[in-house]
Amino acid sequence: MTLAPPEPPAPPAVTVVGIGADGWPGLSGPAREALAGAQVLIGGGRQLDLLPPSCAGRRVPWPSPLRPAVPGLLAEHAGSRIAVLASGDPMFYGIGRALTEVLGAAALNVVPHPSSVSYACARVGWPLEDTEVVTLVGRPTARLAAALHDGRRLLVLSADATTPAEVAGLLRERGFGPSRLRVLEQLGGMDESCMEGTADHWPHPPGDPLNIVAVECRRAPGTLRLGAVPGLPDEAYEHDGQLTKRHVRATTLGVLAPAPGELLWDIGGGSGSIAIEWMRTHPSCRAICVERDPERAERITRNADRLGVPGLRVVTGRAPDGLAGLPVPDAVFIGGGLTAPGLLDACWESLPVGGRLVANTVTLESEALLAGAHRRYGGELVRLAVAHAVPVGGFTGWRQAMPVTQWSVRRTSTIPVAERPARVSAEDPGDNR
């Protein structure tokens, strides 16, 4: 029996072409061929205007908001040869991501162009691998604060012509006024230009909306130094005393062990320090604070904005009721409200296999609850004690802070430890009494 040869794979349904400020002259041969042969051309109005009359396909500008319109627009023109225009590299903060999510990678033919980041590094002489990129396109300016470290080089992708002044303002507010700023406009095009100044004395009015901001971070004298690992100074937070102190916070984050893309529930958020420092470990880390006191909830939001994680979600309500409907967490931290009926069990049941739970307390009543949870679910029960050197007359002595009892556990099964059958080793024949 002769088997029929396999059918060749279907050609890509959509070609995505990156285009720069230099327009048609800067495109490669394959990019020009794809655009000239397309029956439908989809892109931003500015990008479509860069194409010559020889690109005779129907021109369809993206509607606003763009992302929700992608599936319907592609379905409307299904069966036609479609070319989508993107700024620079379509797969670098571009439309390529949305198209891949809708159609799948096999349905796309991506023809990239140098990104604005590549052009910017070439102009200012920075190695790309040593330069951090922060996008403010569709995102709050406050997220830039998490990237501010003395001597660090940043490239900020601007939302529009007002972004450079907003960046300068944030740098001044966060104590980085001496930082050098260069605004690079229309990179790669005939009208390419550069404006320069410091955040403290930014003299330039809004210019071209197509720009990128190069920042050389310089911390002003006296500005509080914030490191890149958990355990920020307590002074970094606005609080009313409800704050997991620095040394305990660093230990707690170490046990919670955040990894990129993971979600934390911070229950009894207080000042939000655990959730904030969880999110600062990686830009893709997410967190939800559950705080019953509205005033504290507002304070958490302010702390998150100031420390560069404005994406922190704050839920005002009591746990466990306030947990209803929240997305499944990778880890849970309980910093307050342990005595609320059913809270510990609700948090345990919310965890997937592999999820982690950490709870801290300073009271005997809550400590008893943690001891019971340790018996049921296993994990590790430790006591953390911190003492600070303080003046004692003309000498120095130790002042002990309240010890913190901490229970941490990783869910490895849906069955509590106390309900699992006992293991009997080969060397243990059992009870021979």
Protein architecture, described:
- Strands 13-12-11-14-15-19-16 form a seven-stranded mixed sheet, with helices on both faces. It has a five-stranded parallel sheet with strand order 3-2-4-1-5, sandwiched between helices.
- The N and C termini lie far apart (71 Å).
- It is an alpha/beta fold and 433 residues long.
- Helix 2 (45-48) links the parallel strand 2 and strand 3.
- Helix content is 24%, strand content 23%.
- The model is unreliable at 422-433 (pLDDT under 50).
- It has eleven helices and 19 strands.
Short key terms for the protein model shown above:
7-stranded mixed sheet; alpha/beta; globular; disordered C terminus; 433 residues; 11 helices
Short description:
This protein has 433 residues and is of the alpha/beta class. The chain contains 11 helices and 19 strands.
> Which sequence of SSEs, written as H and E, runs from N to C?
EHEHEHEHEHEEHEEEHEHEHEEHEHEEEE
Mean pLDDT across all residues, rounded?
Answer: 92
Q: Any idea what the shape is?
A: globular
Beta fraction: 15-25%
Report the span from N to C terminus: 71 Å
Strand order of the largest sheet: 13-12-11-14-15-19-16
The counted number of beta strands is: 19
